[in-house]
Amino acid sequence: MKLAHFSDIHVTHFPLAGGLRLKRLAAVASYSLMGRGQHFRGSDERIGRLLASVDAQGVDHALCTGDLTGVSSKAEFAEVARLFGPRLRQPERYTCIPGNHDRYVRGAEGLFEKHFSTLSEGGRFPFVKQVGALSIVAIDVTRPTGLVDSSGLCGEQQRAALLDILTDPSLRQRFVVLALHYGLLRAEGQRDRRNHGLRDDLEVMALIDRADVSLDLVLHGHMHRPYVVKTKRRTIINAGSATDLHVKRFGYHVYDIDADAHRVRIQRFGWNGSDYAPVPDSPLNQELVTRVA
Q1: CA distance 166 to 194
Q2: CA distance 132 to 225
Q3: Angle at CA 57, nearest 5°, toward 54 and 60?
């Protein structure tokens, strides 16, 4: 099976176009003075090329791990939904979960669900989507936060539901992917900052590292440079941003999955200035065993 994975595509409009809220007002500084507007200049066009490239790979499924928008405005959501087009009616081919920028401010509640509920099992988390021999388990760890906080939270209730899913005997013989927006570890293997990462990261890592859990890969975004890292028992892959102009060879991954052997081969696709193409010399191109006995 082949699974495409991309993240942090960020349709980005001028922050105050979404309405006058304190956090969006603060985002003007990031957009205008700190370069974020330049990072995602023309992202709409790259998203169109990205989706066409993903479709051209003949993958069995494609997963987006969040941050479809810049500041969760109605206009940004409408634009990214327009770019997805008929794919919004193809949940058998696409899965999308929200990122923290899609819950950027209070008052944006429901906008992700309005446009992308068809690709997120109605927006009810956690959920499991079966695609051939692949099981995609998705959780929502995003929430609106304060002015200088972009952290996430899985929460006790969702962790309990996740544990029930991952210890279900029906998953033992399947290739299981856990999708979330936030990373559990940074590229060097350390925890993320408290105001940027997952607040209950230690609890989630303890859960996925249990011996009775069936899990092959943890896939996420949030941090814009891609990497592969491991916990005690699990492989974590960050696809990075698929559109950030300030990231070298930004792009997406295609995973060639051998479900019976619990192996995966990663292929990196990167932006070459006009389109997305394979990156044959990427250090991310690896073959991994994904289950620890």
Answers
A1: 26
A2: 30
A3: 85
Q: For residues 108 and 110, give the distance between their C-alpha atoms in angstroms, rounded to a whole number.
A: 6
- Cβ–Cβ under 8 Å, residues 179 and 63: yes
Angle of helix 74-84 versus helix 43-56 axis, rounded to 10: 30
CB atoms within 10 A of CB 1: 16
To the question of domain 2-289 being in CATH 3.60.21.10, the answer is yes
Helix axes 156-166, 201-208, angle to 10 degrees: 10
Please state, in angstroms and as integers, the Cα–Cα distance from residue 287 to each residue in 50, 253, 261, 280, following that order.
24, 13, 12, 14
DSSP classification of residue 11: B
| pLDDT interval class at 83 (50, 70, 90) | very high
Amino acid 186: pLDDT: 98
Residue 166, token pair as written in the block:
């991952």
- Amino acid identity, residue 262? H
Question: In this structure, what are the phi and psi dihedrals at residue 263, rounded to the nearest 5 degrees?
Answer: -130, 155
Quick one: tokens of 66? Answer: 């969040």
DSSP character at residue 238: E
Q: Look up the pTM and report it.
A: 0.94
60-74 per-residue burial string, b: 16 or more CB within 10 A, e: under 16: ebbbbbbbbbbbbbe
Q: How far apart, in Å, do the first and last CA atoms of the chain sit?
A: 22
Structure tokens belonging to residue 10: 């960020």
Amino acid at 65: T
**Across the strands, what pairs with 66?**
none
- Residue whose entry in the numeric block shows the structure tokens 């890969």: 217
What whole-number distance in Å separates Cα of residue 264 and Cα of residue 287? 6
- The letter for the amino acid at 195 is N
